[in-house]
Design a protein that fits this description.
Blueprint: H1 3-6, E1 18-19, E2 24-26, H2 33-42, E3 49-53, E4 62-68, E5 71-77, E6 83-87, E7 102-104, E8 108-109, E9 116-117, E10 123-125, E11 149-153, E12 156-160, H3 168-172, H4 176-183, E13 190-192, E14 197-201, H5 205-212, H6 217-222, H7 225-228, E15 242-247, E16 253-256, H8 259-262, H9 276-282, H10 293-299, H11 302-310, E17 313-318, E18 322-329, E19 337-347, E20 353-362, H12 367-380, H13 386-401, E21 411-413, E22 431-436, H14 440-455
Antiparallel strand pairs: 1-2, 2-21, 3-12, 4-5, 4-7, 5-6, 8-9, 9-10, 11-12, 13-20, 14-20, 15-16, 15-22, 16-17, 17-18, 18-19, 19-20
Amino acid sequence: MSSFERRLSDGTRIEDLIDVDTREVRVRTLADAELHQIEMERIFGKVWQLLGHESEIPNPNDFMIRALGEDSVLVARDRNGEIHVTLNVCPHRAMRVCRSDAGNAPTHRCPYHGWAFRPDGAFIGSPVGGETMHGKLLDKKQLSLKKARVTLYGGLIFATWNIDGPSLDEFLGEMKWYFDMLFDRTDKGLEALGPPQRFVLRANWKSASEQSASDGFHAYTLHEWLGQLAGFGSGDLTSSMLGVEVTSKLGHSLRCMPMAQKFERGAALKDTSLSLAERLEILAPPGIIPSMAPELERHLSTEQIEQLLLQPPQVGNIFPNLIIEHVYVPQPGGKPLGLFAVHTYMPRGVDKMEFVNWLLAEKDTPQEMKDAMRKMGVRMLGTSGMIEQDDSDPWLDQAVLAKGAQARNITLKYQAIHNPERPSWWVGPAEVYEGFTKDDTQWNWWLQWRDLMLNAG
């Protein structure tokens, strides 16, 4: 890689923005327009991104418009049921081909000069065909919409422009062992509980995304009301900051919290004489009911089921911009309700991002439970959610403060470090840290950011 590629226009080397020895990150990374353009090419142009769930486009020719980085993309199901992701930009004059947010159409016709495309992006033709508006120099196959590579995981639609890059499984690496507990655990899989919430915040995407990499400290201060008003931890959130953190050098992470620590009833799950269905009756993962026990056994190993019931993943991320929330909310009567949500923080410029919030449940989750999950999910998460209104407040401030002449040159600190010893009783893969929350998971997120910015050109 040339020195030009490794330096910003003021001469700063990208690798100097992060001090690996002291675990510090320059604040300018949260507000630098030049860095932002490099991120669009070297991160969002390369890695897998979540665009939606297949249940949002269930029928042939259904489509929706989403963003892959800052590019508008058409996510469409063809007449044979296959899902395609194509750049929503006409190759003729760079006009937006589809301007509807979602719908059903067998063809998509550019409103500028009328070039038409199939749901898979294949060029059909242009008006006044006898005059060959589309010219005579290029084959019709060369006039199709630019196609992304697509993979479904638990019905979630992931896409990347990196056609020859790692598969999604390779991208997830050893953390997939844990993600399978959430996304691939039943026969029929997941569905989206309605269209996602989508809204734009004046914040840099990294502020939200690095917090999603299992930051535990913010809960103690930013969500203090959870203890004071909602009674979490009997008023003291310190106990909720104990658990096991799992992470990898690929930048993914999860915080796994012991159920017995959160809810006294969860302690009964440790009784090995109970059947799986009985244990699910006591305290099931979000969207799971006791009759699904055989399905869990078909999809997951005994070790995965044990962890899913005793110390499940509750929050975490898939690098670079996806957060997972697999949480339990106390209900009147004492039995908690599980919520399952995923968000993406998609860039809309250096100081704007689109917050997209999907609420998920298993397809066979009873409708009454789905309704309750959606209702509570809207109250707790996303644009109207009590918790995430808290979260977004510092992100907005950071986007402004990081532009200051002095502030941009100070550093973010990630120096709370776990004991490197892995707990002997833990059976899952990847890096594992036990105890009070620390900074190791977020630090891996920044190391992956640095690696891609330096080497993914």
